[in-house]
Amino acid sequence: MRLPTCGMLVFVALTAAAPAFGQSADWKQCADVNNRDAVARSLAACNRILKDSREAQNHPMALRNRCGIYYTNDGYEHALADCNLAARREPQSAIVYDRRGLIWRAKGDNDRAIADYDQAIRINPNYARALYHRGTAKQAKGDTAGGDADIARAKQIDPDIDK
């Protein structure tokens, strides 16, 4: 079946105008959240995305990623600010609460970390990373049984979670 020439031109124009979310070089670099060697490049890519008004609907994800990059580089205050903003803009993101929990753990606040992991798990009960992280936070607080149970559940979901 052939599209009329006008219809084909509209399709091409719409496809070309659609944001390349997740496909552009900036998105690929901004998603590199765990690589200490790429922190500067990843932050720059996320910053370009956050300055692009055409990407406004994707800004919460860029903030979550930038939060992760700052966390990887031990920039906990910047990471916390980005995670807080991302949580306000996208309160149903389990990822943002898991990442913020990691920041609280790094800052020595296991109670706040567990509260954020709890929120991530409320949003997605099968989120293995949040379960695993909550388990390690519980263990750090002395709740060995609770921590072991969370870690065991996380391993049921993702057997390689601790690797």
List keywords for this structure.
163 residues; mainly alpha; disordered N terminus
What does the model show?
By secondary structure, this protein is mostly helical. It has a domain at 22-91. It has nine helices and no strands. The chain has helices spanning 5-17, 25-30, 39-51, 59-72, 76-89, 94-106, 110-123, 128-140, 144-157. The model is unreliable at 1-22 (pLDDT under 50).
Gap between N and C termini:
50 Å
Low-confidence stretches: 1-22
| Amount of helix | 55-70%
Q: What does the radius of gyration come to?
A: 19 Å
Number of strands: 0
Mean pLDDT: 89
Secondary-structure element series: HHHHHHHHH
Major pleated sheet: none
DSSP helical segment count: 9
Can you tell me the overall shape?
elongated
Briefly say what this structure is.
The chain has helices at 5-17, 25-30, 39-51, 59-72, 76-89, 94-106, 110-123, 128-140, 144-157. The protein is mainly α. The chain has a domain at 22-91.
List the topology elements:
Blueprint: H1 5-17, H2 25-30, H3 39-51, H4 59-72, H5 76-89, H6 94-106, H7 110-123, H8 128-140, H9 144-157
Helix pairs in contact: 3-4, 4-5, 4-6, 5-6, 6-7, 6-8, 7-8, 8-9
